[in-house]
Amino acid sequence: MVKIEYHSDLKELQSDAQLARLLSPECQSAPFDRLAWWEALGKHCAIAPTIAVAREGDAVAVLPLTGNGGHLSALANWYTFRFRPVLSPVPQAEGLLTQIAHDLAGKARRLTLSGLPDEDDSASRVESAFRKAGWLVMREASDTNHVLAISGRSYDDYIAGRPGKLRTTLKRKTKKVAVEVLTRFDALAWEQYEAIYAESWKPEEGSPTFLRAFAQAEGEAGRLRLGIARAAEDPEGPAIAAQMWTVEGKTAFIHKLAHRESAKPLSPGSILSAALFRHVIDVDRVTLVDFGTGDDPYKRDWMEQVRPRYRLDMFRPFDPHNWLIVARIGLRRLAASAKGG
């Protein structure tokens, strides 16, 4: 018999042995699929969770949501590379998503899930489950994810294939920048990162406390790679670039990077990126580097593949609150199609 439950108190998940294990680093090799990530979203970003769970024996499906007023969305924020349901590794688990979709019909009139990948069939799996349960589903590409498959290459092999302009920059300026890659959390280094970020071209940090707490936890777990760069002529001076990566499950995740605008002539960001690529490829032996979301032009210099991220907007078709919204979305799509054609 299928059991469906909802949790707004994440301590309930932690005290449930089956769910705690499924949502732990032991079973999930990316931070975004774990209980600790969702707890931090609530603690530091004020995102209240509604975790939908369906289970039948060993089969479990978890759909992490947030929201109220009849409109639920993905339990995620700007730090989340991608969103997807978490399923136990048994064939029956996929069918439980449809059971969740059926049950949610009595609790919400609309769901909006953004950042879904489909290289693992997540977007298609969720879309199919909600269509089967009678929801009206609208799917569209919403973002991009740049990645690099190492394919057995060494760092030297990899860098030889980069664009000529980047290779020239590295050749000319590497000796002008001193770099350090820390594999632990260091409070002083983190303060330097925050100071650099404040002076960089980047927008204001969404939640500095979230990011620091995440970096500390990853450092304690041995997954943090914190890069710091200084001018070679002043190695004891202030840091001029900093980057935060993490490594696990043979994947390196590039979370944050920033450099001081005043140091731009030294290209410290590129030099530091190269040092971190060398570390994760030759030392950590990762098989994939994930540059997160966004189609920033500089990512194309380092990455070789682009994967789409999808948004699913799902509506209860007979709820009057949805009719005007659905009509507007439909008209917008028709206009976009006509313009493109």
TrEMBL record:
Which InterPro entries does the entry link to?
A: Acyl_CoA_acyltransferase, BioF2-like_GNAT_dom
- Which Pfam families would you find in this protein's record? Acetyltransf_6
Q: Which SUPFAM superfamilies is this protein grouped with?
A: Acyl-CoA N-acyltransferases (Nat)
Q: Which UniProt keywords apply?
A: Transferase
Is-annotated flag, keyword Chloroplast? no
- Give this protein's Gene Ontology molecular function annotations: transferase activity
Which superkingdom? Bacteria
The BioF2-like acetyltransferase domain sits at: 166-300
What's the name of the protein?
A: Acetyltransferase involved in cellulose biosynthesis, CelD/BcsL family
The stretch of residues making up the signal peptide is none
